[in-house]
Design a protein that fits this description.
The chain is 46% helix and 15% strand. It is built from 28 helices and 20 strands. An eight-stranded mixed sheet has the order 8-12-13-20-19-18-17-16, sandwiched between helices. Strands 5-6-3-2-1-4-7 form a seven-stranded mixed sheet. Helix 20 (559-567) crosses helix 24. The two termini are 41 Å apart.
Length: 775
């Protein structure tokens, strides 16, 4: 902004001394304004010209060095010096006047002849201006404000990455501050743009256009350019929508359907890019074999330069440039391109191929049709969606704006397809479909979603696992079955948990846990190779870690041994089965391990048996440390009600879980086929589940009695988490008909996709994750 006064002087060929001479005193201001109007050859009113001078001068108040460097030190008259008193003014009226025009000079310029040294005046002007503007009106102030906005935006993003949403108080407070900072910046930009337009006028627009042409000419697809219409005007979404609705009406008036029925294309962007590399079509050359291509997609960038226009067209495969030359297309269609087509519109076009002088493969547009008129403005091309909450809530906009997001879901499809092909084509598994609504929730220990069937007057739950129905199919004679399906669990949300998620479960008759170990490792490695750029298995990057999937076989260790390594407590074998002694040893071990581990002490105290205690110790001290692929073997019987007892080790089962980057990725075991043992296991787990929930409730109630902070919230949360652990009698009845020896495996598809696409949150790999209501 501080350069505007210099530009004004340059354009009017007037010196600074002429601009700030005694002619601006009240006695001779009219002649000065007349001189200024003649120099600029513009018919400006006195008020408009005064506003220009006032705005320009106020922009210079924070940049005294600029004025000092000019030749205005000489012949500067006392009429200007009266401004000092105005700048020192503190009232809001005078502050407004300083920025908004002629009232400033009208109120404070006079013909008084008080003499002061010019440098002293500038120092006082600078101090006064900074006191009014808070010390940040110049370029440095803008940069500082941008830094504050970036820092605050990073804070909001970090809070949401941690699982918080716009409903949390921390996020609300941070967003409020961010909005205030943005409003302050926008106000400054609007004031600056108003001043600039007042000084430069139409001529400045022409200069800007020439500079833009010089920067973006030639239609390079990755260059910024002009012609964005309302895209860069700062208009509100409502204003943009109104303008586009008007353009839609204009299309209809000119007999163009803004919402077409179909378009027959001959090629996609990616196929054309592959078919015509530089070696086939050189820079500056046009294909002369008469081939005309029809392409369609969304306009994601547009640049208009007089008789030329360039648009970037994006389809599902990639992008290609549209080269629009007024001499090669109907005049009416060229006007449509210039005035009625916006970024976001879906268009179809036809024409020959050429490569521009800058090397961009392009369709020379000879015919263009608007297939769908977009009524909403797209996010900024260079920054995309910055608000993580909007990214998840309006995924359709995120997918339009972000090629990275689209790539993630392409990779997800490849991963699932690879699983299916491997299981069906090579291992002869059969994909089956099982019910989503259950009369009894089973196959896992998790709180279900409840619903009610009106016609049958029957309560139902959404499935928490596909396991028990797939096992029924094995009992019925299908020896190798699998299902990739949605699972629903009424539990919390985090970067690793979504109430609705996808899993694959498979069951192989006449196999056991050793078969599942090999199968798990192989299917994950094949999926990793499928999404690798080289199509080969290689180490992958996850965040700042390198995960090596190539070192096979992956590490294998028992749960009890891993706990001994972490905190030197042998839960299963060190206390002769005495639960209380084991708890007494575990508490100090957790405190000594880490503060985070110490938070699990209440759960350790509530553990009803050694198996549950071992699992709590594992989760507190080991789980998060397993960064490289690790099979955790030999889970306790008490937490594995559907797995066979280990054939060689007492108290544990033939079960494993796979952990990578501290997360459970897979779970498998030799399936329990003894119906008598199965019933006893279910009953024990049901009792243990009830005892654990009862202990948690008692602990929450004691907090309320003590008056602990947030005790009411803890009690409500504990109460909400209470649910029954029912026994599926029909499944036990099915086992009594006889189930062959069987190995079973479950893999969390979403977490696997997270790992292989380097996605930090499960919401990044689920197209429409569960979110809180906006209100």
């Amino acid at each position: 902004a501080s350069l505007y006064i210099y530009m004004l002087a340059a354009r009017t060929k007037a010196s600074f001394s002429a601009l700030f001479s005694s002619s601006f005193s009240s006695s001779s201001s009219s002649s000065s304004l007349l001189l200024l109007r003649r120099r600029r050859r513009l018919l400006l009113s006195k008020d408009t010209t005064m506003m220009m001078i006032s705005s320009s001068f106020s922009s210079c108040l924070h940049s005294p060095n600029l004025l000092l460097s000019a030749n205005s030190r000489r012949n500067t008259t006392p009429g200007l010096f009266r401004v000092v008193g105005a700048v020192r003014a503190s009232s809001s009226t005078r502050r407004t006047a300083r920025f908004r025009g002629g009232s400033f000079f009208g109120a404070f310029l006079s013909s008084s002849s008080s003499e002061r040294a010019f440098p002293r005046l500038l120092r006082r002007l600078s101090r006064g201006a900074k006191s009014l503007a808070g010390g940040g009106g110049g370029v440095d102030g803008v940069e500082t404000l941008n830094d504050k906005i970036a820092s605050q935006a990073a804070l909001v993003k970090g809070l949401k990455a941690d699982g918080k949403t716009n409903q949390d108080e921390e996020v609300k407070a941070a967003v409020t501050i961010l909005k205030a900072l943005k409003a302050e910046l926008e106000e400054g930009e609007i004031r600056t743009e108003t001043t600039r337009e007042a000084i430069l006028g139409d001529g400045g627009g022409e200069e800007k256009k020439k500079k833009t042409q010089k920067k973006g000419g030639g239609g390079g697809g990755k260059k910024k350019g002009g012609g964005g219409g309302e895209q860069s005007s700062g208009s509100s979404p409502e204003e943009v929508r109104a303008v586009r609705i008007e353009k839609m009406a204009q299309l209809k008036t000119s007999n163009q359907e803004p919402f077409a029925y179909r378009f027959d294309r001959t090629n996609t962007a990616a196929k054309l890019q592959a078919a015509y590399p530089d070696s086939v079509l050189a820079k500056g050359c046009e294909l002369e074999n008469g081939t005309r291509e029809k392409v369609c997609g969304r306009v994601t960038a547009r640049r208009v330069f007089g008789k030329l226009a360039f648009m970037t067209l994006t389809d599902a495969s990639g992008t290609i440039q549209l080269y629009c030359d007024e001499s090669r297309i109907d005049q009416e269609q060229f006007e449509t391109i210039k005035t009625l087509i916006d970024v976001g519109d879906i268009v179809g076009c036809e024409g020959p191929l050429k490569r521009t002088d800058k090397g961009e493969l392009s369709i020379v547009v000879e015919d263009v049709k608007v297939l769908t008129k977009s009524l909403r403005n797209l996010p900024d091309k260079w920054h995309g969606l910055q608000d993580v909450e909007i990214k998840y809530r309006q995924r359709y906009v995120d997918l339009i704006a972000s090629s990275d997001s689209r790539d993630t879901f392409y990779q997800r499809t490849k991963i699932i397809k690879t699983m299916r092909r491997y299981l069906e084509d090579e291992l002869e598994f059969m994909e089956m479909e099982t019910p989503i609504m259950h009369t009894v929730s089973g196959g896992a220990d998790a709180k279900p979603f409840n619903t009610h069937h009106n016609a049958l007057n029957m309560d139902l739950t959404l499935r928490i696992a596909t396991e028990l129905h797939l096992k029924r199919l094995v009992i019925g004679g299908f020896e190798r079955v699998y299902e990739i399906g949605r699972i629903f669990r009424n539990e919390g949300l985090s970067t690793r948990h979504n109430p609705e998620f996808t899993s694959i479960e498979l069951y192989q008759a006449y196999g056991d846990v050793s078969d599942m170990l090999e199968l798990t490792e192989e299917v994950i490695c094949r999926c990793a190779a499928a999404v690798s750029p080289s199509k080969k298995l290689e180490p992958i990057q996850y965040g700042d870690e390198t995960i090596d999937l190539t070192k096979r076989p992956w590490r294998r260790a028992s749960m009890n041994d891993l706990v001994i390594e972490a905190c030197n407590v042998d839960v299963l074998n060190g206390f002769d089965g005495d639960l209380e002694k084991a708890k007494a040893a575990c508490e100090p071990a957790l405190k000594a391990h880490s503060k985070q581990a110490g938070a699990s002490i209440p759960a350790v105290r509530d553990s009803p048996n050694l198996g549950t205690l071992l699992n709590e110790m594992f989760e507190a001290t080991v789980e998060g440390t397993l960064r490289q692929p690790t099979f955790v073997l030999d889970h306790p019987i008490e937490i594995s009600p559907l797995a066979k007892p280990h054939r060689d080790k007492k108290g544990v089962t033939e079960r494993f879980e796979l952990f990578v980057v501290g997360r459970e990725l897979a779970n498998a075991f030799s399936e329990l086929t003894d119906p008598i043992d199965q019933r006893e296991r279910f009953e024990k787990q049901s009792r243990a589940h009830a005892e654990t929930q009862r202990a948690a409730l008692v602990r929450a109630e004691k907090k309320v009695e003590r008056g602990d902070k947030d005790a009411g919230d803890v009690l409500k949360e504990t109460t909400d988490d209470i649910y029954e652990f029912p026994i599926d009698e029909d499944f036990i009845n099915a086992l009594e008909y006889g189930m062959p020896p069987c190995g079973g495996l479950g893999i969390g598809v979403d977490r696997l996709v997270m790992l292989l696409t380097n996605s930090p949150s499960i919401r990044d790999v689920i197209a429409f994750p569960t979110l809180k209501n906006e209100d």
